[in-house]
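Researcher: Quick test of sequence recovery. Tokens follow.
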């Protein structure tokens, strides 16, 4: 008799998920924005999403900060260069943990540059939605360097320092929907 596994396939529910970011401006306050268009798949191999395979794509043309002038600049070659690089992609290499906190290591590609990143993901839980779908919730935050991905545009300010901080904090509030039952 074949051994059963907990393998199941999940997809990002884009209506109930948000990928957002913050960067310091004038070293005073944070400017935030989000990527409203995202898709992705998670293949869970064990309960609690430990040992999962993760593949997420964000569409750069959809970046939004609530300010069209700033959004246009962020879409330009100074930052995301959306004409030449229409997506940001994350592919996991490993996902290990205790079910509540999952240490995810993966490859993040922005502007054609791929870097290894580690993200601690918090597994919030699983619940059915009103339509009978099974949903799972996750949260994470991580800090990236703009320079690592060839986004070096900046201007000096009179009081010293630069207009924009190099560090960008990325947050994810992610809801997955199960599309296959555990085997």
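Model:
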């Amino acid at each position: 008799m074949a051994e059963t596994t907990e393998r199941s396939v999940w997809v990002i529910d884009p209506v109930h998920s948000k990928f957002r970011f913050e960067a310091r401006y004038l070293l005073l306050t944070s400017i935030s924005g989000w990527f409203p268009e995202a898709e992705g798949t998670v293949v869970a191999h064990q309960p609690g999403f430990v040992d999962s395979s993760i593949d997420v794509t964000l569409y750069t043309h959809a970046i939004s900060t609530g300010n069209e002038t700033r959004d246009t600049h962020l879409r330009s070659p100074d930052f995301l260069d959306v004409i030449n690089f229409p997506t940001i992609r994350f592919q996991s290499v490993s996902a290990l943990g205790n079910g509540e906190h999952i240490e995810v290591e993966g490859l993040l590609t922005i502007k054609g540059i791929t870097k290894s990143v580690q993200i601690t993901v918090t597994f919030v839980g699983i619940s059915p939605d009103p339509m009978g779908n099974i949903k799972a919730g996750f949260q994470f935050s991580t800090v990236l360097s703009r320079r690592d991905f060839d986004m070096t545009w900046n201007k000096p300010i009179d009081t010293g320092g630069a207009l924009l901080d190099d560090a960008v904090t990325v947050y994810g509030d992610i809801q997955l929907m199960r599309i296959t039952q555990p085997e």
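The mean pLDDT is 91.
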